[in-house]
Amino acid sequence: xxxxxxxxxxxxxxxxxxxxxxxxxxxxxxxxxxxxxxxxxxxxxxxxxxxxxxxxxxxxxxxxxxxxxxxxxxxxxxxxxxxxxxxxxxxxxxxxxxxxxxxxxxxxxxxxxxxxxxxxxxxxxxxxxxxxxxxxxxxxxxxxxxxxxxxxxxxxxxxxxxxxxxxxxxxxxxxxxxxxxxxxxxxxxxxxxxxxxxxxxxxxxxxxxxxxxxxxxxxxxxxxxxxxxxxxxxxxxxxxxxxxxxxxxxxxxxxxxxxxxxxxxxxxxxxxxxxxxxxxxxxxxxxxxxxxxxxxxxxxxxxxxxxxxxxxxxxxxxxxxxxxxxxxxxxxxxxxxxxxxxxxxx
Amino acid sequence: xxxxxxxxxxxxxxxxxxxxxxxxxxxxxxxxxxxxxxxxxxxxxxxxxxxxxxxxxxxxxxxxxxxxxxxxxxxxxxxxxxxxxxxxxxxxxxxxxxxxxxxxxxxxxxxxxxxxxxxxxxxxxxxxxxxxxxxxxxxxxxxxxxxxxxxxxxxxxxxxxxxxxxxxxxxxxxxxxxxxxxxxxxxxxxxxxxxxxxxxxxxxxxxxxxxxxxxxxxxxxxxxxxxxxxxxxxxxxxxxxxxxxxxxxxxxxxxxxxxxxxxxxxxxxxxxxxxxxxxxxxxxxxxxxxxxxxxxxxxxxxxxxxxxxxxxxxxxxxxxxxxxxxxxxxxxxxxxxxxxxxxxxxxxxxxxxxxxxxxxxxxxxxxxxxxxxxxxxxxxxxxxxxxxxxxxxxxxxxxxxxxxxxxxxxxxxxxxxxxxxxxxxxxxxxxxxxxxxxxxxxxxxxxxxxxxxxxxxxxxxxxxxxxxxxxxxxxxxxxxxxxxxxxxxxxxxxxxxxxxxxxxxxxxxxxxxxxxxxxxxxxxxxxxxxxxxxxxxxxxxxxxxxxxxxxxxxxxxxxxxxxxxxxxxxxxxxxxxxxxxxxx
Lengths: 346, 584
Known about the structure:
Oligomer: heterodimer
Number of strands of chain A: 14
Number of helices of chain A: 12
CATH superfamily of the largest domain in chain B: PAS domain
Radius of gyration of chain B: 66 Å
Low-confidence stretches of chain B: none
CATH topology of the largest domain in chain A: D-Maltodextrin-Binding Protein, domain 2
Mean pLDDT of chain A: 88
Largest sheet of chain B: 7 strands, antiparallel
CATH superfamily of the largest domain in chain A: Periplasmic binding protein-like II
Shape of chain B: rod-shaped
Strand content of chain B: 15-25%
CATH architecture of the largest domain in chain A: 3-Layer(aba) Sandwich
Number of domains of chain A: 2
CATH class of the largest domain in chain A: Alpha Beta
Radius of gyration of chain A: 23 Å
CATH class of the largest domain in chain B: Alpha Beta
Shape of chain A: globular
Number of domains of chain B: 4
Order of helices and strands of chain A: HEHEHEHEHEEEEEHHEHEHEEHHEH
Helix content of chain A: 40-55%
CATH architecture of the largest domain in chain B: 2-Layer Sandwich
Helix content of chain B: 40-55%
CATH topology of the largest domain in chain B: Beta-Lactamase
Number of helices of chain B: 16
Number of strands of chain B: 19
Largest sheet of chain A: 7 strands, mixed
Distance between the termini of chain B: 73 Å
Distance between the termini of chain A: 95 Å
């Protein structure tokens, strides 16, 4: 046995590994995903990383305002792909922060239900003939109520303002939807497009809401904690079915109602940023999430609807698809003041 | 190559010494390294506990301030006279003054407020830290805080209890210096004299300034981290990781150090010390200690975790210094071991060497001297044995030598006269012949025969004849030079070898001298006897080209002398040769 030869071989092996290591470590690409809780959980991220030999950074957002602020901060250069609802998407397209998809890179769309496959029929996903968004999940935002504590199943959005529930209501900490539901409450003709008077009325309504809630929450987990620690009767379900599942999993005896005014309904889609460093990889990610196993995990684990299989409707009622709002930043500024406790005493 | 015993012994001793001290050094190093790490872990844990204690003391100090503020008499007056606007204004002013001075006295406070329970938690008094001082917020800017936990949790507490908030970024608008900053809020309820709820007093504490005060004497290379009970970083050397949960990205310590999960999840563990990757640069190892700081809050059970991470490098630097010392000491001892081995080797090998030399000298025939016989050990014993062996050996050798000499004499000498016999004479003659041949010198051979010696034997007996022979030998010996050889060939025949002749006259003179000496009477047993001799001389090179010829020539010359009347001598000559040939 020639030990010398073996020794030499081992040396060569080690040296070549040493030479390859930095290039291997340095070559691994990174995909930066910004999304909502449950959209890209660890399990599906790990599987993607393994399959494509890349690193995936997932940044979670809690509100549309947060998402807008983050994507805007560096002209969309900090992220590759993001999850946004069709209404919000419009301002991203207008600002040029989002780019269109090459549908050839999304073969898994074939699995989607007919109503999500036919993109031209969905308002907001197309712009000048190009596809900017791929539907991923959706939910209506109704009212969650404690079956035991509620006097009656809430029929109207006005239940949130019911003085009988003062200090026992949880509302969502987000500017856009809050103004929309406040406008709906005031009977505004178009709650997505408020004029000056509409803003004044809605602001006053939101102050009233603030005075009636216990507090405003941001994440579904926070609701579970607040719900179990405090005497809560009513929750505005910003996260819809996901939140309902989380509460039920925690043992709360809760029901879900769609108010007669209608429930705002969001359709969250994947979109690619202008600053994406590798659009192919971003599209590969979107395509990957449309795989049956990945999409179904959304429903199975997180209680979110998916676009592959029909989600059992949990409540009947009118739904109102979210629309772009007239002035997001104005809503945000006003909301921040409302949340801080301003009384707008001019 | 021949290695001396000394070198071998020295080598092995040195090797053993080096190995033993090296092993000792290594053992000492590893042991003390482990001890150092353990002790640095202890030290670090202690330091972390001190920090934790400071932190909870600081929080308690804030809580006492809050309690003090909530029990101010101005506040009591305000609650009692809230329906009277005039008095209310007076007491509010007093309250504002106290709050302002408290805020001014505490650089770590952002804000002090009195929030009323009425009007949805509307603030009644608020003093804010601004860039260069403290301001009293005008009434028009006061806000409703009823929907914040620090209000709705505190309002439910009894007097004397207090609330400690989660630490997060203050996103409330209009909070001046504190806006957007990491903030801890401590609040206490305020009741009216009749026990109904009046409101809460809240102090907003700047976590960074509180913490920089706490960590002020921690060396710069020790990393300090602070997390909340979910493990989210609140103080981390990389500022971007702080309060990730308030910015949409969670950076949690259990993702960096998985071993911490049980401590965060369980109530029964309040500290942990471990060797782990550094949270700042995961490539470098560090020694880390973590301690839970529980908040004695009446509303919620909460804790934070303080951690100190010191680079393992730093700990090992101490052990490196120690290691260097150990190496130095080890080297010193190795040198010492080498020295001792050298001395020991010399001490052992010198007597052995001197014995070896003595034996060598003895072997060369010299007497055995210089043995270390005075030593009182195995070597001395060996030397003594050698010496007695050598003396016995030399005694035997002397005996052998004298015997050999005796036998030699016997072989080469005539036992009667002690003169060289025929054998020795012929040998010397051959030697002389060879030398003369080479050196072109001359020599002579003399043949001597006693005249009518037989008659003496017959007349006086053999004993007298022997005596005469002895005297004749002595007389002839007296007539020749020391270098010349006189030999008895047989009976009354003698020969003389005369070397290095100067002239042919020399042998003639010696012959005459001998003849003359023989004229004196031979006294044997009181009787005077007379004896003559006849001599024949042959000369080299003229009388013979070889030894036998020279002898026979001398013999022939001697017969010539006898025939011519005895008591005379003759040189060999051509006539003699002819007469001899004629005779034969």
